[in-house]
């Protein structure tokens, strides 16, 4: 791997930073959306990215991309997440980072022409219908049922942790089409219009007090057979493609870097009595440790993008990136709330909250990062089996 960015990549980063300073401010670093106002603001911003061709840089030009490298796309995600800005077509870049690549890898020509250009133009948003009450990290246990009836699949079931379901145009989801097959073999992958009759949802209140995730219910929902992505009963292989993109982690790196810079700047400006020199020294040492961790996490994430550009499949490398970066984020969040003292626990609505209450919010937000997108325990299993060649326990 080349650990240097090219002149073109550095110039793009400079242009993107200038754009972000002019076009975006605020944000919480939370990928999920929980209000109409927030949704509309993010959509308007992503349209501006799309107008510049930045929303889907690494996509082929035929589908609205710019034929750029995956490293260039990773730079875009890192800088947007650092600015606490959205990164593409739904929470966490669902459309640009997950659905689009899966459609390009497994879709028919008709599906590519139908779904990819609207994503590249910033015209559609997507949510994810993977997890269920009895199928979290063990996604192959999904029980949401799809039965082929003529030209439609009839879908019935219950999904949880559907990010942004209330505002999404489409959901990409795993369904069981053969209940008698081994659990990995009887799954299919559907692309479903969220406006279809029979879909309902209710918000889930999170630790942060926000409700960006939902429970989603499917009651005799008719889905055209033409919306099957990949082969029937082989949707697990489509899902593993999607999960590999979800776990690459460069967006989390940008968010963690921003939290670090904010904390370091605040502590450097804080007035401490002379008797607090030992505390100041301890804080500097702790921050130095975090800075090293963040840099390691950054290059682990860029390694995934570099491998994709080299035509390699990051089967376990993306799991390494996801595991490491999410745990770094939690450690930094813990350091932040403790370094800020009693005020470190105050959130947005308190006048006395340091850094606008973001450290306390981030502490709660990152609690789920080691669970979502596949628990870190599952990621360690993937690294052990696919990376180290160890047998199943």
Please state the overall shape, judged from the principal axes of the Cα atoms. globular
What is the CA–CA distance across the termini? Answer: 33 Å
Strands side by side in the biggest sheet:
2-3-7-6
Average of the residue pLDDT scores: 90
Quick one: biggest sheet? 4 strands, antiparallel
Give the domain tally.
3
Structure summarized in a few sentences:
The chain has 393 residues and is an alpha+beta fold.
Describe the structure.
The chain is α+β, with helices and mostly antiparallel strands and 393 residues long. The protein has 3 domains: 7-125, Butyryl-Coa Dehydrogenase, subunit A, domain 1 (Orthogonal Bundle); 128-233, Beta Barrel (Butyryl-CoA Dehydrogenase, subunit A, domain 2); 247-387, Butyryl-CoA Dehydrogenase, subunit A, domain 3 (Up-down Bundle), CATH 1.20.140. It has 11 helices and 7 strands. It has helices spanning 7-23, 36-51, 70-82, 94-106, 109-120, 235-246, 250-269, 277-309, 317-339, 358-365, 376-387; strands spanning 126-129, 145-149, 152-163, 170-176, 187-193, 199-204, 213-224. The strands form 2 sheets. It has a 4-stranded antiparallel beta sheet with strand order 2-3-7-6, with no helix packed on it. Strand 2 (145-149) and strand 3 form a beta hairpin. Helix 4 packs antiparallel against helix 5, helix 4 (94-106) runs antiparallel to helix 6 and helix 7 packs antiparallel against helix 8 (277-309). The chain is globular.
């Amino acid at each position: 791997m080349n650990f240097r960015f090219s002149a073109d990549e550095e110039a793009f980063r400079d242009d993107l930073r200038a754009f972000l300073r002019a076009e975006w401010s605020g944000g919480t670093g939370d990928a999920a959306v929980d209000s109409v106002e927030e949704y509309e603001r993010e959509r308007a911003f992503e349209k501006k990215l799309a107008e510049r061709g930045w929303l889907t840089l690494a996509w082929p030009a035929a589908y609205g991309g710019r034929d750029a490298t995956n490293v260039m796309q990773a730079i875009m995600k890192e800088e947007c997440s650092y600015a606490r800005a959205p990164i593409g077509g739904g929470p966490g870049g669902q459309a640009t980072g997950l659905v689009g690549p899966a459609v390009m890898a497994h879709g028919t020509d008709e599906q590519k022409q139908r779904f990819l250009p609207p994503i590249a133009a910033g015209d559609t948003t997507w949510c994810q219908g993977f997890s269920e009450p009895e199928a979290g990290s063990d996604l192959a246990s999904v029980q949401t049922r799809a039965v082929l009836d003529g030209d439609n699949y009839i879908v019935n079931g219950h999904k949880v942790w559907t990010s942004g379901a209330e505002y999404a145009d489409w959901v990409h989801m795993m369904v069981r089409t053969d209940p008698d097959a081994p659990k990995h073999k009887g799954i299919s992958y559907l692309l479903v219009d969220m406006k279809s009759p029979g879909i309902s949802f209710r918000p889930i209140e999170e630790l942060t007090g926000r409700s960006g995730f939902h429970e989603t219910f499917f009651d005799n929902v008719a889905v055209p057979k033409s919306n099957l992505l990949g082969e029937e009963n082989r949707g697990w292989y489509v899902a593993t493609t999607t999960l590999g993109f979800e776990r690459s982690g460069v967006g989390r790196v940008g968010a963690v870097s921003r939290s670090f810079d904010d904390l370091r700047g605040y502590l450097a400006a804080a007035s401490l009595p002379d008797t607090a020199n030992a505390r100041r020294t301890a804080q500097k040492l702790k921050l130095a440790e975090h800075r090293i961790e963040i840099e390691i996490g950054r290059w682990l994430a860029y390694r995934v993008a570099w491998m994709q550009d080299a035509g390699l499949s990051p089967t376990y490398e993306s799991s390494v990136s996801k595991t490491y970066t999410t745990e770094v984020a939690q450690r930094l969040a813990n350091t932040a709330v403790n370094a800020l003292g009693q005020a470190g626990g105050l959130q947005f609505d308190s006048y006395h909250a340091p850094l606008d209450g973001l450290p306390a919010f981030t502490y709660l937000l990152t609690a789920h990062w080691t669970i979502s997108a596949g628990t870190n325990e599952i990621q360690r299993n993937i690294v052990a089996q696919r990376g180290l060649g160890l047998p199943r326990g």
